[in-house]
Amino acid sequence: MNTDRCSSVVSFILLVVASADCSQGNLVVIILGLIAAVLAIGMLYWAFTSPRYREVEGKVDGCFAIAGYVFMLFTLIMIVVAIWRAADQAWVRRTWVPVEAEVISSELVSSDISWDGSALIIIDGKLQTTGFAYGVESRYRYAFAGRQREATLLSCCTVYENRAREWLAAHGPSSRQRLYVHPTDEARVSLGGADASIAYASAPRAVREALPFVVVGTACLLIARSMVLKRARSAGLR
Q1: Distance (Å, rounded) from C-alpha 193 to C-alpha 25?
Q2: Residues 9 and 83 placed together within one structural domain of the fold
Q3: What is the 3-state secondary structure (H, E, C) of 194-220?
Q4: Per the domain annotation, does 224 fall within a domain?
Q5: Helix 59-95 to helix 27-48 angle, to the nearest 10 degrees?
Q6: Host domain of residue 157
Q7: Dihedral (C-alpha) 52, 55, 57, 63: value to the nearest 10 degrees?
Q8: Residue 217 forms part of a structural domain
Q9: In terms of CB atoms within 10 Å, which of 12, 79, 134, 180 comes out highest?
């Protein structure tokens, strides 16, 4: 297997693994995905700038290559966003004060997003559309600094209603959930990324959003690469 195809496959596999971690947004796995994507772009760039192939490169090849690099650039941006989000939640879990909280109440909330167009989702292997986003609003009771306190947190949003209902079922009244309280600002309370499966600003979501870019980008680059190689063989350069 050529180094360009190998690096692209490794990048894609690591991104899939990172996107599968929907609980805490594993920072190490996401960083590995970033390294793989950088290596893929570097190897593909090396392949495309080889002098013996550049001289037989055509305009169509170049257009595919440019498109591929643009998509891979967006991939890197989304992975950097994922790293930032994962690092932010890791910092919360390390530096904020953990408390065990009791769920007082939880309810499913929804928002009509049809004004911005319907979202495509996959349920039971079938492609469907939805015009709603879902979240869960929960009230928590916990002890902090010798006093009983309450906090209302909104975990939002996902277009998959089943994910929101799963979170709701696991956080019914009297269930327990770890919260994190800011050490100097008691009004700031966080779930520390526990709701990453339904939260919009989560590391796994950013990685999942990067997957279409890496798929399309890799496809464009490999198409361009195969066109260059075919023309190079015809010219007797390989």
Answers
A1: 8
A2: yes
A3: CCCCCCCCCHHHHHHHHHHHHHHHHHH
A4: yes
A5: 160
A6: 97-190
A7: 110
A8: yes
A9: 79
Share of the chain above pLDDT 90, in %: 25
Residues 19 and 76 in one domain: yes
Is 220:68 a contact under the CB 8 Å cutoff?
yes
Whether 207 contacts 15, CB under 8 Å: yes
Residue 95 to residue 180: CA distance in whole angstroms: 9
Residue 113 confidence class, pLDDT cut points 50, 70, 90: confident
Burial string for 105-143 (b: 16+ CB within 10 Å, else e) reads ebeeeeeeeeeeeebeeeeeeeeeebeebbbbebbbebe
Q: What is the mean pLDDT of residues 178-203?
A: 87
20: left (phi over 0), alpha (psi -120 to 50) or beta: alpha
| Count of CB atoms situated within 10 Å of the CB of 152 | 11
Return the SS3 of 180: strand
Residues 77 and 49 in one domain: yes
Residues 61, 179, single domain; the answer is no
Residue 87, in any domain of the structure: yes
Number of structural domains in the chain: 2
Assess whether 115 and 156 both reside in one domain.
yes
pLDDT class of 54 with cuts at 50, 70, 90: low
